[in-house]
Amino acid sequence: MSRSNKKTKRLWETRNLRVLVDMDCVLADFEGSLLKKWKERYPNEPHIALEERRGFYVTKQYGDIREDLKSKIIEVLSSEGFFRELPPIEGAIDAIKEISSMEGVEVFICTAPLKEYQHCAVEKYEWIEKYFGRDWLARVILTRDKTVISADLLIDDRTDITGAEKNPSWRQVVFTACHNKHTPSNLLPKHSVRLESWLDSDTWKQIIEDAKKKL
Ligand SMILES: Cc1cn([C@H]2C[C@H](OP(=O)(O)O)[C@@H](CO)O2)c(=O)[nH]c1=O
Ligand SMILES: [Mg+2]
């Protein structure tokens, strides 16, 4: 029996574990790339080293240094090519392909477009096509409210995800990023677990297996 038949058959037995995977800072190196492009575009402006990053919004941290830096950061983020050219995070592409090939597991890529969507939204699709192939375009969910998407797990670097649904169906896996690595565990979302890196395959495999057992 082919794997897809097996997966279909399983639907009548137990349902699939549905895993949402965030893009920026989980699959794509948003922070590292932004810092590099910021220094190239504004070499005479102050910059925030990755070790100094605190809080989800890089825009806010720059704005706190000087108000006009916020709009300059947004200009870099929303410029043509920014999202298309993001390098993948180490191990991410292989890990996601492996998770999606696990029996009884389905993966969707769930990512928020910038409000300045003109390049961002299209380039996110281009990025997925480049690294995963055309078939994966059917697995992309673009939303600025991840709480209304139903799933078992959401792997995301943001630690304060809120939205219209006060009790999202998913449990969060907090993916470690420069801005959240100092966040103490008591400030992480309730029932969340941390994943430090895609290279730690023992941990992500364990997280998936544990979640499957709870179905
Ligand atoms: C403005 C800003 C956006 N982003 C990312 C998060 C969203 O992508 P994602 O949902 O893939 O992580 C996207 C739109 O806000 O840009 C940051 O990670 N930090 C920021 O400061
Ligand atoms: Mg993210």
Automatic annotation (TrEMBL):
PANTHER family: 5'(3')-DEOXYRIBONUCLEOTIDASE. It comes from Lingula anatina. One of its GO terms (molecular function) is 5'-nucleotidase activity. GO terms for biological process: pyrimidine deoxyribonucleotide catabolic process. InterPro entries: 5'(3')-deoxyribonucleotidase, HAD-like_sf, HAD_sf. The lineage of its organism: Eukaryota, Metazoa, Spiralia, Lophotrochozoa, Brachiopoda. One of its GO terms (cellular component) is mitochondrion. The active site is at residues 22, 24. This is 5'(3')-deoxyribonucleotidase, mitochondrial-like.
